[in-house]
Amino acid sequence: MRSQLDGVIMPEMARNWAVAALALTATLCITAASKSQAGPTLQSQVAAGFVREYVDGVTFFLALMTPIVTAGGWLSVTDRSSVGTMVLTTLTALVILGLASLPTDEFTPARRVWRIAQCKEREMKLITWRETLASKGVPEIGEAQSSSVVYGFVTRTLVVFLALFVSMSVIVPLVRVMRGWSPIAPHSWSLLLLVIPAAYYNLALGWGAVSLWSSFRVKHPKWHFIGKTLVPVALWVVTAIGAVVSVVAQNGVATTGVLAFLLLGVPALLALQLPMSRSARIGRMHRFAEWMARPVWQQVQTRLDRHAEVIKVDLKSEVSNVLYTRFDGIDPT
């Protein structure tokens, strides 16, 4: 890597960049400090807010690029004088990072109105999302049905493992007989390793479902569900089909069928538990699906409750923040 980047950014170039970036950052910080006291009108406060956003954006860019340029300069060091140049350049980059990290928040009624509006918008999105989940049949998990995340994961993994163990204990001997081998494999204990795909499928599908159903900041729920479901499913299916096809020529159809069952059949059956758990039908399969998916819906509900608490705390802190000031009779609340 060094041979490829050596000479691309010379130490003198890095030094010149750092000095220019430091001068610009300092100028912007002084400008932001001079605008810290916004005028008594709403227009002047909004204008000051735009200046601060511009300053924050430019200083963030400089703080991001200067270490990269400095690293490139270090890769081109060839003598002791260049080492001294790069040491000073590195110190300059640290100063830029320090200036860029200075707080530039402003406590004005205009900013308070904007932040309160943001909190209320998040609150309305959360309420709308809960209504969307209810319309899709997502069950509410009461305290009597709730359990710890670890307990839910372990019990569901054991159920999937036992189902896989029993299934493969029947399928593997049949495949061995079809290939003219003894029905009893010399390493039958290896079936215990099926706990690994059982745990992986439960963890991957559960984490993905919780992330999908607890993301309430979406503009189009329909496309949210379609996009975030089809993309990972398509990637997994393509990868699994490629693995299955690569095995056909060497191991035959029977072994390929077993691999296809493990890579495609098992995750498909587990994924079906979520829509079945949202069904209004009452039956053994649906009750089992509801039990399997209960940890997922419990975590979704817990996440949404946490978001609601965070929004409530943010809204309360913005309303009661004593650092804000009133002006010209405008009520910031």
Question: Would you kindly provide a written description of the structure presented here, covering whatever features stand out?
Answer:
- With about 325 residues, the chain is an all-alpha fold.
- It folds into two domains: about 1-105; about 130-315, no CATH class.
- The chain has helices at about 1-5, 10-35, 40-75, 80-100, 110-135, 150-180, 195-215, 220-270, 275, 285-320.
- Helix 2 (about 10-35) packs antiparallel against helix 3.
- It is flat and about 80 Å long.
- The relative contact order is 0.10.
- Residues about 325-333 have low confidence and may be disordered.
Short description:
This protein is mainly alpha-helical. It is 75% helix and 0% strand.
Strand content: under 5%
What's the story with the biggest beta sheet?
none
Radius of gyration: 30 Å
Q: How many separate domains make up the residues?
A: 2
Helix content: over 70%
Number of strands: 0
